[in-house]
Specification:
The complex is a heterodimer of chains A (about 230) and B (about 180).
Chain A: H1 2-13, H2 24-40, H3 42-49, H4 68-88, H5 113-136, H6 144-162, H7 170-187, H8 195-208, H9 210-217
Helix pairs in contact in A: 4-5, 4-6, 5-6, 5-9, 6-7, 7-8, 7-9
Chain B: H1 3-11, H2 15-37, H3 40-57, H4 67-90, H5 110-122, H6 126-137, H7 142-149, H8 153-170, H9 172-176
Helix pairs in contact in B: 1-2, 2-3, 2-4, 3-4, 4-7, 6-8, 7-8
The chains are: A mainly alpha (about 230), B mainly alpha (about 180).
């Protein structure tokens, strides 16, 4: 019965939001125009999101990339943050955890903006610590699986935040969206990634300015894991 | 032209290669965006944003997965973010829990099933909905879905199983027949 119904579901679902023909030319013109506009006004855009901002030099001497405890502390902190966020959005279905979380219900309990700000700052701080550690350990083998697991946890938290009022702020939203792509790349790392893959993620991090923007967004001394890192 | 060569030419600033890359992938991206959004304007917005992001980040494409998978992961991220923004703006949430199975409705004909099925898919939690659309509607494999969404294929299978279970629950009257 279930199999027959699944077949019926699949057959009927093929008409769901049935797409028309792709408006190729119209879309291409829009893309070209948008990219031209972006190139013509790079200054305004970069000022808007503080891209490429010159940041104070931060020493990495306290980073000990090879210590499993360091990674474990990072993962534990990320899990704790995830649980905290989960409690903020108490009315979400408990089963939605992996690909994209359900939105925080507007009808649910009111949570002050401060709580989301604190959670966002903590998440950005965790991400900054993680990415700094990741970048520093790019050339050292053996941590890829831990890095991938941590990135997946951070990705889940990132998606929760994107779905929350924390993302109402345009600058924060842009940062979270860019962070999502970086974390997704690390989350998809194979157990034995090629050196070139790691280098490309590192380059992507630097070219997109994600790490720099994270450092700008995180007030000094807020990271719960900084002591461990 | 091979994909790798095409990418190299795009990175070197060749406009015809950009157009070729766009032509090769726009249908798949647009179809996914339209299936998810159900709206022409939104689907166009999300497709446009996907390609703008893709061109600006192409140097980070590692080639582990197919370019189509990489583009799909950008498209799904852009689309889900866009839909969340719309939902927040409208202050409207359509959660699955809002869908009470219509226990006293008699199934009459396929058109009725399709209408209710469409409503039920709309009401799925977005993670389930994305997997259901990608697998059962657009024909992606679990491996492709996993790579696109950044999850294990097993997670994709589990999400699809749960999505179908929810749909069966909502469409219980049809399932009986």
């Amino acid at each position: 019965m279930d199999d027959r119904f699944d077949d019926l579901l699949r057959d009927s679902a093929r008409d769901y939001n049935d797409p028309p023909d792709t408006p190729r030319e119209e879309l291409w013109q829009r893309i070209v125009a948008a990219r031209d506009a972006e190139k013509a006004a790079p200054k305004e855009q970069t000022e808007g999101v503080e891209r490429h901002r010159v940041l104070p030099f931060r020493r990495l001497r306290d980073i000990r990339p090879n210590r499993p405890l360091t990674w474990a502390a990072g993962i534990a902190a990320v899990l704790a943050l995830g649980i905290g966020l989960g409690r903020l959005s108490v009315d979400q279905p408990a089963t939605v955890t992996t690909t994209a979380p359900a939105p925080v219900s507007p009808a649910g309990p009111r949570v002050s903006g401060t709580a989301y700000r604190v959670a966002t700052t903590e998440h950005l701080s965790q991400s900054e610590a993680f990415l700094t550690l990741f970048r520093a350990s790019v050339r050292q083998k053996g941590n890829e699986q831990l890095a991938s697991a941590t990135a997946r946890q951070l990705l889940a938290t990132n998606r929760l935040l994107l779905d929350s009022p924390a993302a109402d702020d345009a600058r924060t939203r842009l940062l979270l969206q860019d962070l999502e792509l970086v974390l997704a790349e690390i989350a998809q790392l194979s157990p034995q990634p090629r050196s070139r893959d790691l280098e490309l993620i590192k380059e992507g991090l630097e070219q997109g300015g994600v790490l720099s923007r994270l450092r700008t967004a995180v007030p000094a001394g807020t990271s719960a894991t900084r002591g461990a890192l | 032209m091979e994909e790798r060569e095409l990418i190299s030419r795009v990175l070197a600033g060749d406009p015809s290669a950009e157009r070729a890359l766009y032509d090769a992938h726009v249908d798949r991206v647009f179809r996914l965006a339209y299936r998810m959004a159900g709206d022409m304007d939104k689907a166009q917005d999300y497709t446009q944003e996907t390609f703008i992001r893709a061109f600006s980040r192409l140097q980070t494409f590692r080639g582990d997965a197919a370019l189509s998978t990489w583009l799909g992961s950008i498209a799904i991220s852009v689309t889900l973010n866009g839909l969340r923004k719309v939902r927040r703006r409208n202050e409207r949430e359509v959660g699955l829990d809002d869908f009470t199975p219509a226990r006293h409705t008699r199934p009459e004909a396929d058109p009725d099933l399709k209408t209710r099925l469409n409503q039920a898919i709309d009401g799925l939690p977005e993670g389930y909905r994305a997997v259901f659309i990608m697998h059962d509607v657009e024909g992606y494999t679990h491996e492709e879905i996993g790579a696109t969404l950044g999850v294990h294929p097993g997670t994709s299978k589990a999400q699809l199983f749960r999505a179908r279970a929810r749909l069966r629950e909502v469409l219980a009257d049809f399932a009986k027949d």
